[in-house]
Design goal:
A hairpin with a 2-residue loop joins strand 2 and strand 3. This protein has helices at 5-9, 12-23, 28-33, 39-51, 74-81, 84-109; strands at residues 26-27, 55-60, 63-68. It starts with a helix and ends with a helix. It has six helices and three strands.
Length: 110
């Protein structure tokens, strides 16, 4: 089955793995240390991230290193970015509503 970036970011554990790897390259064991789930579960998440092209795993001696491929996150970023204006408008509208409520509350207290 062909996986894509949206499958990669659909799971919160995988999003956390991406965040950790965005800061530094880590061994598989080092990635696993950040989570309270089994090593086989981490391996499965890493395999999915690798299949989606978000990370690559390189063998160096006895260690397997996970490296992030950030350019492969661009499709998700572009998809999310198209909704940015909508979200900002909704949040601005909500903020205005809260300000109006606060003003009414302040007038009633006086």
């Amino acid at each position: 089955m062909r996986r894509d970036v949206f499958q990669a970011i659909a799971d919160p554990v995988r999003r956390d793995i991406i965040e950790h790897l965005s800061k530094q390259t880590m061994t598989v064991n080092k990635v696993a240390e950040h989570f309270d789930i089994s090593r086989p579960a981490i391996s499965k998440h890493l395999r999915i991230l690798e299949e989606c092209g978000i990370i690559s795993i390189a063998q160096k001696g006895r260690e397997r290193y996970c490296l992030i491929n950030p350019k492969n996150l661009i499709p998700a970023f572009l998809w999310i970015d198209q909704y940015r204006n909508l979200w900002e408008e909704k949040l601005d509208s909500f903020e205005n509503y809260l300000n109006q409520l606060q003003q009414k509350s302040n007038k009633n207290e006086q």
